[in-house]
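quick one before i forget lol
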Amino acid sequence: MNPFLSEKTRIELKKVHKKEPHRHHADRIKAILLLDSGWSYEEVAEALLLDDQTIRNYEKLYKDKGF
């Protein structure tokens, strides 16, 4: 997968992730960052203990609406 985030966006997402109190939201941020780093849906799902369809949904939501 090709990177789709700007460097500025990656930095902002990392800052938000550090302060995010809700695990679900933090997982969404991690998923987007890992996908942008070239990880596959399956790799991200395995690392976060989620279903790969959930990761696909996170990506679609991010690309459609952001966070």
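fyi Residues 34 and 65 are 18 Å apart (CA to CA).
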